[in-house]
Write a structure and sequence with these properties.
With about 350 residues, the chain is mainly alpha-helical. Helix content is about 70%, strand content about 5%. Helix 5 (about 115-145) packs antiparallel against helix 6 (about 145-165).
Length: about 350
């Protein structure tokens, strides 16, 4: 007699099954997003033209996609590092804001010689992001405070801190707008001669290589895998659990802070109120879709950069709101996550005699 069904976790997941579920979820999510946009009056041919042809197959569109993907790689890597040790970094934007403020401080105060201005800005941004995430890390390790709450609240504090500076000491007196003064030439990442693609792409690629080595080759990466799977077992085996968590979490904050510096020095050339908006959701999307794999982060960030570029076109020329663009991204993420359920679990019938 059939009594019901059970959802059982697979002991091993074949690579082909994981790949098929991932691909199926991605295609299904993109299809639903396309249906959503078509229902809003966008012709399917226009959608294909903007998303595929103009975004990935033209010189201008591909340059815009690479530019948009550069900070996404860094925030995606930052989120992925924290995920490795089961630390849920929901304060990505806060660390990004702090990194942007630190880079701005170096720039507008002319700290150091001009030849070292960019490295100093990047280093200051990484330190600022690291210090900002150190607060929730300490709260979690010492008093078991949920990092979901603490990182999220610190993100809001960082944003209000930016507001305070832009409406106060850092306000651009020449324009009167709530932005910092424009950066000098020595404080801007050099353009590569391809649309707005700048030297930040080399920073992002270097970060991918370092994170790939850290997570896949180094001893610390193997320890992080053990900590992420079962912290109690890792501690019982004598692994340096606290050190491993600290390195990966602080690295997460440093990378997110670095993303803030790359945006300010690479595209904005100043600190503005809208600089960090949207990167929390994007960083989580990139890391989850890449399953915290640094090389996969590079691919997913490039694809999401294309979606971002297309979303900008849809907002300007087709009247699509920001909420709809974010909804389309959310549909893709949920579809992939739901599809992964079929890879990790199987249905089993339970029968009673």
């Amino acid at each position: 007699m059939l009594d019901g069904t059970l959802l059982l976790r697979r002991q091993t997941v074949p690579g082909w099954l994981r790949g098929a579920c991932y691909t199926g979820g991605l295609v299904f999510g993109l299809g639903l997003s396309a249906v959503l946009l078509v229902s809003m009056g966008i012709a399917p041919s226009d959608l294909f033209q903007e998303f595929v042809i103009q975004t990935f197959m033209t010189y201008q569109g591909l340059g815009q996609t690479v530019t948009a993907a550069t900070p996404l790689v860094l925030v995606g890597l930052g989120t992925a590092l924290a995920m490795r040790v089961r630390f849920w970094n929901i304060g990505i934007e806060g660390q990004l804001w702090c990194g942007a403020m630190a880079a701005t401080w170096v720039a507008i105060n002319d700290i150091g010689p001009e030849s070292l201005r960019i490295p100093l800005m990047m280093a200051a941004a990484m330190i600022a992001g690291l210090l900002w995430i150190a607060i929730p890390l300490i709260l979690k390790l010492w008093w078991s405070v949920s990092e979901v709450i603490s990182t999220l609240l610190l993100g809001s504090i960082a944003f209000f801190w930016v507001q305070h500076m832009l409406f106060g000491a850092w306000r651009d007196t020449t324009t009167g707008f709530a932005t910092s003064p424009s950066f000098d030439a020595a404080e801007r990442l050099s353009l590569l001669g391809w649309e707005q693609v700048h030297g930040g792409i080399w920073i992002a690629l270097t970060a991918v290589l370092v994170c790939t080595w850290l997570t896949g080759v180094s001893r610390l990466g193997l320890q992080a895998k053990a900590v992420g799977e079962n912290m109690r077992a890792a501690k019982a085996a004598g692994l340096p659990v606290l050190t491993t968590i600290a390195v990966f979490v602080l690295g997460s904050g440093a990378l997110c802070g670095l993303a803030g510096a790359v945006i300010t020095a690479g595209t904005e050339y100043r600190l503005s109120q809208s600089l960090g908006q949207g990167y929390l959701f994007s960083g989580i999307v990139v890391a989850f879709l890449a399953r915290a794999n640094p090389l996969a982060v590079l691919v997913v960030a490039f694809a999401l950069g294309g979606i971002t570029t297309t979303g900008g076109v849809l907002k300007v020329f087709y009247g699509v709101s920001e909420a709809v663009v974010l909804m389309a991204q959310g549909i893709v993420l949920l579809s992939v996550l739901a599809a992964q359920l079929f890879a990790d679990y199987r249905l089993s019938e339970r029968r009673l005699a």
